[in-house]
Each structure stands twice: as C-alpha cells, then as structure tokens.
Amino acid sequence: MVHHFFKGKDELFAHSVELPADPEQVLAGVADADPDRRAELIVRTVLRLWESPAQAALLAFLRGSIGSKAKTALLREMVERRVISRIMASVPGPPEEVALRGNLVATQVVGLMMVRYVVRLEPLASAAPDEVVQLVAHTVQRYLTGPLT
C-alpha cells in the first residue's frame, strides 16, 4: 500500500510527520565536499537551518518525534538513508567503520541541536554561529576522518 500512495517510505514519513526541511536541499553540496574538510560545512549547514525561520517547526518536529515510538523509528530510518548517507558519501573506509563514523557525527550534531536549541544551555545557546563552528567542527571532523581510538 505504501508504494500505491507514496513514492516510498521517505515520502510516507515526510507526510506523516511534516518534515520542516528537505534533507536533500539542506545538505546539497555536502556529499561533494572533500571529506577531510567536510565538518565545518556540516556544522554551518545545521546552524544555518536552525537559525532560520524554520526553527519553531524544527523544535516541534523534534519534540514530537522523540515522544512517539513510531515516529522515532521512521525518523531513524530517514536519518540513516537521507542524512547520514549524504554526510558520509565518499568517506573512505570499510562500510562498518563508515557507518560507525556516521553515527558518531550524528551524536555531535543531535547533541548540538538539543543543547543549543531545545535545552538552551548557556553560554552555547547564545554563542555566535562562527564560534560554535570553531568549537564543534574539530570533533565532527575527527569522527569523519580522524583516528577513532
């Protein structure tokens, strides 16, 4: 039935939870960036999205998805297929390692979103975006291409 009414699970998910932003548009160009210099672009992209007028919808989406087992499961699948796969495109390494690196990048990005925009812990919540990029991008880059030990 999903394929009868929708192009696939991603479209079903988008309709069922009303995504506030299209991951393909938001992450345009990330997959083409040099993996050794991709972290800054990722962090800037996330901050630009969350500092945009879409912030209220993003907050509502995040809160609503976390509170529902079904929506959380759909969110997990969508994040793996449409977000992490784009962020990790062309990152060298065995598939298991690349998947782990993608999960580690997600810990930093989701943690940043939660602390800065949901919990609003200071001084991170009011730090300038350029300062946040300087503070966070190094860790994201290590998870992308640096040593994992």
UniProtKB/TrEMBL annotation:
<dbReference type="InterPro" id="IPR041678">
    <property type="entry name" value="TetR_C_16"/>
</dbReference>
<feature type="domain" description="Tetracyclin repressor-like C-terminal">
    <location>
        <begin position="37"/>
        <end position="144"/>
    </location>
</feature>
<dbReference type="InterPro" id="IPR036271">
    <property type="entry name" value="Tet_transcr_reg_TetR-rel_C_sf"/>
</dbReference>
<protein>
    <recommendedName>
        <fullName>Tetracyclin repressor-like C-terminal domain-containing protein</fullName>
    </recommendedName>
</protein>
<dbReference type="Pfam" id="PF17920">
    <property type="entry name" value="TetR_C_16"/>
</dbReference>
